[in-house]
């Protein structure tokens, strides 16, 4: 048991060291997405190598399951930038412009909703496609990767309980939760070490901001705070 815990903690330390090493070497916006992608990939590799077999098989999450896609999602600025870069790589300019308009409108609609209000409203993530699949799955946020469920019905009950006084536990893959949340913390710490914006930001509005104003990535790297418009 002790050896198992120590091994998991070493994984966390590896992610922290990797984040510092990668972001200490980012000198311009072209380096942000590769560094971010590498940190996420390493977290995924560690999870896969651990072979948490029984829990992996029992995870019920999959394409078309969008129960948790009605919650507010926090991203770090490099994550939002990476998503914006990926969208520009996979869509033509006209599609990107239309997407930016849609995301900006969605961000306004959810801007002042806390978690309970967001869930109660039923406003789904605008990155879901017409099938209910995540259209940015390869570059989805770490906080999305951290959330898993072994039982769809229990997942729905746990989500609904956040709008009431009832508390329903969610059975999940704890190793996956730890590694993805540790990758998030490690990235934030690496940014703070650089003296650049390390705060969590709302997913939709931040991606929209980078689609509309890609030059903000330069501002980010020199220490400017990336905030959302007030309206």
Keywords:
single chain; 231 residues; mainly alpha; two-stranded antiparallel sheet; 2 strands
Structural summary, described in words:
There is one protein chain. With 231 residues, the protein is mostly helical. 60% of the residues lie in helices and 2% in strands. The chain has helices at 2-23, 32-50, 53-58, 77-90, 93-110, 115-121, 142-146, 152-161, 174-194, 203-212, 216-221, and strands spanning 74-75, 201-202. It has a two-stranded antiparallel sheet with strand order 1-2.
Q: How many beta-strand runs?
A: 2
Helices, by number, come to 11
Oligomeric state of this protein:
single chain
**Average pLDDT across residues?**
89
Please trace the helix and strand order, writing H or E for each element.
Answer: HHHEHHHHHHEHH
* Shape, principal axes of CA atoms: globular
Q: Termini separation (Å)?
A: 51 Å
The portion of residues assigned to helices is 55-70%
For the report, how would you describe the main beta sheet?
2 strands, antiparallel
Structural class: mainly alpha
Radius of gyration: 18 Å
Strand percentage, roughly?
A: under 5%
Spans of 5+ residues with little confidence (pLDDT < 50)? Answer: 52-56
As laid out across the biggest beta sheet, the strand order is 1-2
Question: Could you outline the blueprint of secondary structure elements for this entry?
Answer:
Layout (H helix, E strand, L loop, with lengths): L1 H22 L8 H19 L2 H6 L15 E2 L1 H14 L2 H18 L4 H7 L20 H5 L5 H10 L12 H21 L6 E2 H10 L3 H6 L10
